Amino acid sequence: MILYEYPFNERVRTYLRLEHLFARLGQLLGRDDALDHHFAFVTIFEIIEVAARAELKSDVLKDLEKHKQHMIAFRSNASIAQDVLEGVITQIESAFAAVNAQTGKAGASLNDNEWMTSVRSRIAIPAGTCEFDLPAYFHWQHHSPARRREDLMRWASSLWPLAQAINLLLKLLRDTGSAQKVMAVGGQFQQHLPQGRSFQLLRLRIDEQLGLVPEISGNRLIVSVRLLRPSPDDKLPVAAAEDAGFELTLCS
Known about the structure:
Elements: E1 2-7, H1 10-29, H2 34-50, H3 56-72, H4 82-100, H5 114-123, H6 135-140, H7 145-156, H8 160-174, E2 179-184, E3 188-192, E4 201-206, E5 213-218, E6 222-229, E7 238-239, E8 244-251
Helix pairs in contact: 1-2, 1-8, 2-7, 3-4, 3-8, 4-8
């Protein structure tokens, strides 16, 4: 099964982008090749760029507090495992404290690192980090993998509180949904959303063996999925005409 996710608002879209970048950074840091560490460097800059949205920190803190209050309301519910509940509340409080303790935007302290700034200014230019452009960076790439990894971890350390908070918020959001099996008739599916309820994320799982790609659109009133079939000759995908089932989850 292939999982596709579709955000219904800009805030969740930003969370998903950051989750994607943090996951990539984690994979690259675990490798030893200098080229992988170069792209880890690139990813750190991408995270800083996405996290530069002015209201991001405020949104994260508000969402954590909202989830905390929602969880606290279950403390008197006898059907809820209280030890598990308290563990989740503790995680939320810890994430809130870590993000709140940071001054400014995530990764802002790296802007004061003149050497990193010099690399950042060249890294977006095609082949801008060649040895004749940035000899000091070329020299850094010849350090041992352990030395490079230590440097990257140190530079990325100011980003980890945001990463932990984003991962927790998305986990809590995904846990609110219940999967349902639906059918796209003639490659088309639409579902009206209930009034008075605001959904933030759609999750769609489809069997890889079907060879179909879902094109998802939606708003607070309706969700639409159009199934496409990739073209074998590098052309754009074409609309599928057959019936096909998939799993749909709406998270609020």
